[in-house]
Design a protein that fits this description.
The chain has helices at residues 3-26, 76-85, 108-146, 151-184, and strands at residues 42-45, 48-51, 56-62, 65-70, 92-94, 99-102. The chain is of the alpha+beta class. It folds into two domains: 3-27 and 107-184, Orthogonal Bundle (Topoisomerase I, Chain A, domain 4); 35-102, 2-Layer Sandwich (Gyrase A, domain 2). A hairpin with a 4-residue loop joins β5 and β6 (99-102).
Length: 186
C-alpha cells in the first residue's frame, strides 16, 4: 500500500482548497483598493465576452482608487458599460483615455457584512477540506482491505490524514482572522 502517495494526494487537495480560499478572499473588499476587485468583470468587446484583464491594464494609483487603461481606445465605452453593469458599488468615470473608479468609504455595518461574507467563504473551504478527508479515508480503507494491509497501518494513515486536515483548517482560520482584521480596520 502506497501510504506516502495517498497522503501526498490528500495534502495536494487540501492545499488546493486553501488556494481557492485565498483567491476568494482577494475578491472581498477591504478598505483599500485592489485590482482583484474588478479582474473578474466580463467585458463584451470584439463580438465576445472576455475578462477585463485581457482588454485593459488595471492599476491602483492610490489606496482609494482603481484605474483601468484599455489596450485599445475603442474598447473604452465597452469597459465603462461592463463596470457599470457589474454593480460594484463604484461609478466608473472616463476621461476618454482611462477609466477611474473611486472606492467609497466603508460604513461599520458594511464592514460587518463583509466580515460575515469572509466567514462564509472560510466555512465553505473547511467543508471542502472535510470532504477531501472523507474521500481520502474511504480510498485508504478500500485500498487497504483490497491489498490485505495490516489494520494498524490503515489506522495510522487515517490519523495522518486527520492531522493534515487539522493543520489546513488552522491555516484557513488564520487566513480568516487576518482578512477579518483587514476588513474591520478603519
Amino acid at each position: 500500500m502506497s501510504i506516502e502517495a495517498d497522503l501526498a494526494d490528500a495534502k495536494t487537495k487540501f492545499d488546493k482548497c486553501l488556494a481557492q480560499l485565498q483567491h476568494e478572499f482577494k475578491g472581498i473588499r477591504t478598505g483599500r483598493a485592489s485590482t482583484s476587485m474588478i479582474e473578474h468583470v466580463q467585458v463584451e468587446v470584439y463580438g465576445q465576452r472576455m475578462p477585463l484583464t485581457q482588454v485593459a491594464g488595471i492599476s491602483v494609483p492610490d489606496s482609494t482608487q482603481l484605474m483601468v487603461k484599455p489596450w485599445d481606445a475603442d474598447a473604452l465605452k465597452h469597459i465603462v458599460r461592463a463596470l457599470s453593469e457589474a454593480d460594484l458599488g463604484m461609478t466608473p468615470m472616463s476621461d476618454g483615455k482611462v477609466v477611474r473608479l473611486n472606492l467609497p468609504p466603508l460604513s461599520g455595518d458594511r464592514r460587518k457584512q463583509l466580515a460575515g461574507q469572509a466567514k462564509e467563504v472560510c466555512e465553505k473551504a473547511k467543508v471542502a477540506m472535510r470532504n477531501v478527508r472523507r474521500d481520502a479515508i474511504k480510498h485508504i480503507e478500500t485500498k487497504g482491505k483490497a491489498e490485505k494491509a495490516p489494520e494498524d497501518l490503515i489506522k495510522k494513515t487515517v490519523a495522518k490524514v486527520d492531522e493534515q486536515l487539522k493543520a489546513h483548517e488552522a491555516k484557513a482560520e488564520a487566513e480568516l482572522k487576518a482578512k477579518t482584521e483587514d476588513i474591520l480596520r478603519v
